[in-house]
Every structure is written in structure tokens, then in C-alpha cells.
Amino acid sequence: MRLTLLLLASVLLSCTSPAENSEEPIVAPAPAPLPYDVHDSVPSFPSYTFLTGKFDPSEHPDFVKVAAGYTDGDPYVLHRDTYAAFERMHAAALADGIKLIIVSATRNFDRQRQIWEAKWNGQRLLEGRERADEAYPDPADRARAILRYSSMPGTSRHHWGTDVDLNALNNGYFAEGEGERIYRWLTEHAATYGFCQPYTAKGPDRPNGYEEERWHWSYLPLATQLTDYAAARLKDADISGFAGAEAAPRIGVVENYVLGVNPACKE
Ligand SMILES: [Zn+2]
């Protein structure tokens, strides 16, 4: 009975958040020591430590809390420049009858590691239906399956304080009705405020990387600096500190995922 309840709870948790980001509690084994000390680290922008999210953004002087009126109720922080731009965009959208709601923002290495390892170990189902540990015994296959929607720790744009998830973690939501109006507004106006959708539909312009995410928007004046930094400095072999990190070089995580974004978001 207890096992049945656990399985049911796990399915429900996964279904409410098919993508990368939920802030639901995750039942995980006792964590290994962190590969860094969040309390000693206030990395400069840009730097390798900043890029890989190995700091506590709530303690970083460049990060600010997001006002509750902009969010789904959970606490979030953003880089202050991103936040100022988001406030301008939010006001302009509201004037057009569009309400933008932040449903995820900055997540550091450790938070991403919790999400990644829960999927790696099968505690959290992929897209609500698949146990990665059972479906993909080969580490590279398993990593690619998780990477449809979730980043490896150390490689997420959500580490940077530059990226937000808006309104719903579900492409279908943005295909009709209110969601379609919101997405159309964003595609027409977000660039005015510095925001770009990095994970557009796969195609000739974007053959590799994460699947489409209509909810994920990136503040380019900061994010392009970090993308450039990653292109120059981030190496697959340096990705470490979590279960499955050994797959990073086999799948080319930097080239295919970190740099596999909408070309318009690299300019
Ligand atoms: Zn996102």
C-alpha cells in the first residue's frame, strides 16, 4: 500500500511539471558534499563560478527578490538588471491586457543537481511517464533523455539570473486561447525589453539541444556575455559533481546544449 501511494505521488508530481523546473519537494538520498562552498563564494560577472551556478544567488549582491505580484507565489530571485527589464516588460504587457507570471527563475548548481539526480535515479519520472534509470541503462542515452527538458548541473541558463519561465511549463498552453495571446505578445514585444526565447522549435536553425520551451525567456544583455564565456571556457570534461556527469563528454553537452540555442539569442 505504501509503495502504491509513493508511486502514485511520484506520478502526480511529475505530471504537474512535465519540464525542468518544478519547485516541488523531492525525496532524495542524503546528498554528497557540495563541490563548492556557497557561503564563501560571491563570484564576479562573468566568471566560471558564476556561469556554473556554484554560489547562493540569495546571498549575491547583484541579485534581488522578485515581488510576489509577479510570481506564482513561490519565492524567486533574479539578477537586478534582468529584474528591472522584466518589470518594464510586465508593465507594457499589462497595458495590452497580458499578464506575465514568473513560475521559475534562478536555480543554482545545487538546486539543479537535486532535479537532475531525482530524474537520473528514477525518483522523478521523465515527462510524467518514464523511469530514466530503467529505460536508459546507458549513461549517454539516459543523459540525452533527461536533457530533453532538464539541464545538467553547471550548464543551465537558470544559474545566471538572466532567465525566467513564464506562465506555464507546457507548450500546449501557449497554442490556444489565453496562452496563445501571451505567446504572440512575447514573440512580438519581448525583444524590445531585451528578452529572447532560446529554446525555439528544432529545425535547420537549431538542430541540437533542448526541446522547444515557449515559456523560457532570457535577458540577452547579460546572457549573451555568459554564452560567449561558455563558448570560450566551459569544457565537457570539467562538468562534474553529480550523478551521471561522466556522460557530458559523450553527448557534447556544451556544444549541443549550452550553445545549441536560437541563433537570435546569441547576438
Ligand atoms: Zn526554463
Give a topology summary.
Blueprint: H1 2-16, H2 48-51, E1 63-65, E2 77-79, H3 80-95, E3 102-104, H4 109-120, H5 132-135, H6 139-146, E4 163-166, H7 177-189, E5 195-196, E6 216-219, H8 220-233, H9 248-251, H10 253-258
Antiparallel strand pairs: 1-2, 3-4, 4-6, 5-6
The chain binds zinc ion.
What does this 3D model show about the protein?
- The structure is a single chain.
- This protein is 36% helix and 7% strand.
- The longest helix is centred in the first third of the chain and has 16 residues.
- It has one domain: 2-Layer Sandwich (Muramoyl-pentapeptide Carboxypeptidase, domain 2), CATH 3.30.1380.
- The strands form 2 sheets. It has a 4-stranded antiparallel beta sheet.
- By secondary structure, it is of the alpha+beta class.
- Zinc ion binds next to strand 4.
What are the salient characteristics of this protein?
binds zinc ion; alpha+beta; two-stranded antiparallel sheet; 267 residues; disordered N terminus; four-stranded antiparallel sheet; globular; 10 helices; 7% strand; Muramoyl-pentapeptide Carboxypeptidase, domain 2; single chain
